[in-house]
Specification:
The structure holds two protein chains of two kinds. By secondary structure, chain A is α/β, with parallel strands linked by helices. Chain A has a single domain, classed as Divalent-metal-dependent TIM barrel enzymes (TIM Barrel, Alpha-Beta Barrel), CATH 3.20.20.150. Chain A is 44% helix and 18% strand. Chain A contains ten helices and twelve strands. An eight-stranded parallel barrel of chain A has the order 1-2-3-4-7-8-9-12, surrounded by six helices. In chain A, strands 5-6 form a two-stranded antiparallel sheet. Chain A has a two-stranded antiparallel ribbon with strand order 10-11. Chain A is globular, with a radius of gyration of 19 Å. Chain B is mostly helical. Chain B is 56% helix and 9% strand. In chain B, the strands form two sheets. In chain B, strands 2-3-4 form a three-stranded antiparallel sheet. A two-stranded antiparallel ribbon of chain B has the order 1-5. In chain B, a hairpin with a 5-residue loop joins strand 3 and strand 4. The longest helix of chain B is centred in the first third of the chain and has 25 residues. Classes of the chains: A alpha/beta, B mainly alpha. At the A-B interface, helix 3, strand 6 and helix 5 of A face helix 1 and helix 3 of B. The structure holds fe (ii) ion. The site of fe (ii) ion (FE2) has 4 residues of chain A, from loops. The site of fe (ii) ion has 4 residues of chain A, from loops.
Amino acid sequence: MGLKKSAFMHSKDQLPYLGIGLGLRREIASETLRSDKIDWLEIVPENYMRIGGHARRRLAKARAKHTIVTHGVNLSIGCADPLDQNYLDDLKALLDYIDAPWFSDHLCFTSFESDYMHELLPLPLTEQAALHVADRAKRVQEFCNRPFLLENISYYMDVPGSEMQEASFFARVVERADCGILLDVNNVYVNSINLNFDPYVYLAALPLERVVQIHVAGHSHTDTHLIDTHGAPIIEPVFELLQHVLERCDAKAVMLERDQNFPDFVEIENELDIIRKMVESTYSCKTARNICDSTIVNDLVAPL
Amino acid sequence: MKNKVMQVDLLKETERQMHQILMHQEARDQYADGEGVFARANVADQAVHDGIELYARLIANGRRSLFASIYPLAETLLGKKFDALIQAFRESNKATHYNFNRQAQGLAQFVEANKNIYATRYPFLSELIEYEWLELQVMEHEGDLPPASHCAKDHHSPEEYAAISVQLNPTLIGVDFDYPIQDLIESIQSGEKLPRRFKKSPCHMVFLRDRDDDQRVVQLGPIARGMIARCRAKTDLTVGELLVQVLQDRELSEHHGSDLENLLSIIDDLSEMQAIFLV
Ligand SMILES: [Fe+2]
């Protein structure tokens, strides 16, 4: 007998399959909106919440053509302060305007005592921090009235006082909150190098059935770290992680993150093509296998 | 419950220390000698120190490029001192809004409040910074402009014209400057050497976003400024009411020659520059 599905897993079943997406960025907005290689768009909501002018015009155009989801940077879900209700009100208004099927933010904190640092900072990985984050994630999901996804960040040090692995922490949060996962495979790779762990072991510890969206991106190097800049082409080990994850989850959307150091748009489209091929071939295999499996089941039950 | 409160306090204490260390150079220089979560005794790991340095650098670089993009003229003028200014500003001013650009808000007020430190060479610095901030403000202002099709067309009888409503551009911001700010900006942009002494020359500027989402900055005379103030005070003013109000203003009519023809041409100019809409 299978376990009863949670409310989130039920709502995941109802979510549309969006396909291959790109982040809507001002610098490449006109090419993005002209391209026929993009199925859906992701926006940074803070760049559109209560903002008029060019941003609003760009959003209206995007909304007329594509499904849009938001990927926030300043919900500060791990912050010990109370949730910022003004932020949530503005976010909800935007989500309603674009009719987003889901929304996401990062598993981190970005503010302290109402001071936004504008950096995704890692949390101490403790049971109690997990409970604190899960409680807030649950409330945010309820308030915004649509599925909420948390993304694994790239981070550059283990916070002192941590008492569990990141994957266990992440799993604990999303299961307790009953929310979804935005799995960033580039972040998994970057962290595995910087913090010296096996990315495949990390992935094995996550409840991959909760993955709704996947991020793929390139990164850069400093003397001491790989940095998640979204400013370079995707490298092969990251594609391999993507393939590994696709085979193990039922993602509704895969997105290329490119935020700086923009190349010719055709290079971005080429990367989108590669991602599309991987997703479509993996998912058509999976669909074929599922049909095959269900035929076997039917054959077995037919004589009864 | 008590345990939960205690643990959230521990989370809060960790975040408090990270915030201190990352946002304040002095705290960063000293944290290893302190006692908290990040003290060296607790953190033998070099990786944590490298991580702290990296995060501090990422935050500072992000902030620097943001401020330089919003205040390019102030950056040109101050050169290397620009970095010290924004560091000092940020250390004593929280970024309380979630929007990235808004962390640069209030720099003009900070310079004005500390002008003996930052504005000795350029006494107009806070006004220049305010000017650059307002350029961004109007571009991001959430106000919607009435669509062009809603605006009254030409060829009215005088009575019809007097009954037209005047609507103020919701993005419009008016500011008084002590210094001839536009002349100074032109000099900075063209790389001219600025004089050692700066003469004050008060002016009133309005900043607005037009229907094409372009920004406009215009200097206004006293009558145009008076009209804008009246439109702001009463939202459903008609052209006729506006004219009567300005004509009845003794100060304006005595000192600035507010004859009807002049007033009508000012209304035309304000409408042309989209400071007001005749709807
Ligand atoms: Fe990501």
